[in-house]
Amino acid sequence: MLEDEHLVREALEGRERGYRKLLEKYRGPVYSLILRMVRNEEDAEDLAHEAFLRAFRSLQKFNPEFSFKNWLLKIATNHTIDFLRKRDVNLLSLQDLPEEGSYLTVEVKTPESELEESERKNIIEDAIASLPLLLRTPLLLRHREGLTYEEIQEILNIPLGTVKTRIHRAREMLGKKLRGKVF
Predict the structure, then answer these.
(1) pTM value > 0.85
(2) Could you give all domains of the chain from N- to C-terminal order, each with its CATH number?
(3) What's CA 99's distance to the chain center, in Å?
(4) 42-77 per-position pLDDT tens digit
């Protein structure tokens, strides 16, 4: 993105505007990804802050031929995985339900239907949280963050075939865990 490249250049020149604009633009996606991984708002805030600090300290290493967003998400993902390994915290799973506002149908929610939906989400979250870390991370990046296989490959620094295999295995494991429980 040309805008990101321009903002990175500004930041590297020591202009606060570049740092501020990059932070404003990517604070939401970075925090959201980390929150889904750690399941704790305070930890997510701290980790997001630390991820931005790491990125800004390493800004001179950023290669403008690649996506700044993917580079930043790679830093955030790796930092969070390190944190989780150290703390042995379970990852929050992705929700297998559409985002709010992503469709135009109107649903009438009853207390019973809200309870069922909440239980369904919890079952899905628990199933994904029980996946091994190596499978959860690419699954979350693919389905929650909407990244391509190639972007995940870049972020996790693993071969493309490995990305596809891990996502496929994660889906299979989820299917087995959720069979008969969710719908």
Answers:
(1) no
(2) 1-92 (1.10.1740.10), 109-183 (1.10.10.10)
(3) 15
(4) 999 999 999 999 999 999 999 988 899 999 999 999
